[in-house]
Amino acid sequence: MTSKLTTAREIEGTVVEVMPSVGLAYLADEDNATWGVTRSTRGAGLDALRPGQRLRLTVVQHPEFAVVSEYAVLD
């Protein structure tokens, strides 16, 4: 079995859309990459998010993909 390395980094993103009825919010970073957070992502909770808010995202980079593991409201 081979081990796959993962790394974590922090980026800032802006809330674009919040869809609490489906448990999802979309965010964009400064490079216009789109990120998603769900009800199960560690953070303030979807009910606390509003379009235009700035968030600090902890992104875990896997060899084939990256996911937001945690977020915090900046403003």
Describe this structure in words.
With 75 residues, this protein is an all-beta fold. The chain has one domain (7-73): OB fold (Dihydrolipoamide Acetyltransferase, E2P), CATH 2.40.50. The protein contains no helices and 5 strands. Strands 3-2-1-4-5 form a 5-stranded antiparallel β-sheet, with no helix packed on it. A hairpin with a 4-residue loop joins strand 4 and strand 5. The chain is globular, with a radius of gyration of 13 Å. The mean pLDDT is 93.
Features of the shown structure:
mainly beta; single chain; 75 residues; five-stranded antiparallel sheet; globular; 0% helix
User: Which consecutive residue ranges, at least 5 long each, have pLDDT under 50?
Assistant: none
Quaternary structure classification: single chain
Radius of gyration (Å):
13 Å
Total strand count, please?
5
Q: Kindly give the count of domains.
A: 1
**CATH architecture title:** Beta Barrel
- In CATH, the homologous superfamily goes by the name Nucleic acid-binding proteins
Order of helices and strands: EEEEE
User: Which structural class fits the helix and strand makeup?
Assistant: mainly beta
Spatially, the strands of the biggest sheet line up as: 3-2-1-4-5
Report how far apart the termini are.
44 Å
Approximately how much helix is present in the residues? Answer: under 10%
Sheet having the most strands: 5 strands, antiparallel
The amount of beta strand, in percent, is: over 45%
Form type: globular
Give a concise summary.
This protein has one domain: Beta Barrel (OB fold (Dihydrolipoamide Acetyltransferase, E2P)), CATH 2.40.50.140.
